[in-house]
Design a protein that fits this description.
By secondary structure, this protein is mainly α. The protein has one domain. Helix content is 45%, strand content 6%. It is built from five helices and four strands, in the order E-E-H-H-H-H-H-E-E. It has a two-stranded antiparallel sheet with strand order 1-2. A hairpin with a 7-residue loop joins strand 1 and strand 2. The longest helix is centred in the C-terminal third of the chain and has 26 residues. It is globular.
Length: 205
Amino acid sequence: MGRAVMVSSSMSFVTKEFHIMPSFRPIGSVPGAYALPPVEAKPGWPLPDTGPFLRAFSGTEKPGAMMLHYALGYIGIWRVIYDQGRDAPDTVHEQLALLTFAIDREAAAHTLQIPVTADTPVNPSSFGEMVSWLAWKYLLAALRQDLPAHREHDANQLVRHIEAFDRLVADVQEGRVRLPERATDIYPPKTFTPDTGGQSREKCR
């Protein structure tokens, strides 16, 4: 493995509780409808790579940006899915999609002024889906780091996604790839590799 990644050993960040994020306000009695806070990001702000997200997940750095607060919500959601599998309630998956939508809104503001053309390829998966999968891979590596059957595989999968994520951020910042307007809700996410003209897929294990 070419890159070392620190994961939390305390498990204090891995909550089994599942809550609707306080900043998401239900709209009347409409099921699944929430009011989101205004977009915080401004055009020209750099799109964050995996570093700030990993530091927030590990608890080594308090999240400052709204996008990082949203990302922390993924940890609790994926923990419920990890524990309950197919028995996880529909509200968990709704919240997963809501967090992704919120992060994608922030990412759109970050990238609004990056010059692209009509021919610039669009990444298959959204930025929020990449963040969501980063949280899932981080969670697996943390929960199963003491299990010999999973430890090396989980660590390799986490590093692989980190590399794909950071490569995507660099490509988007340089205008080589555009982010899609909406998420696909398909996991694992896919990334576009402009130098080869193809797509690489993060495999779920």
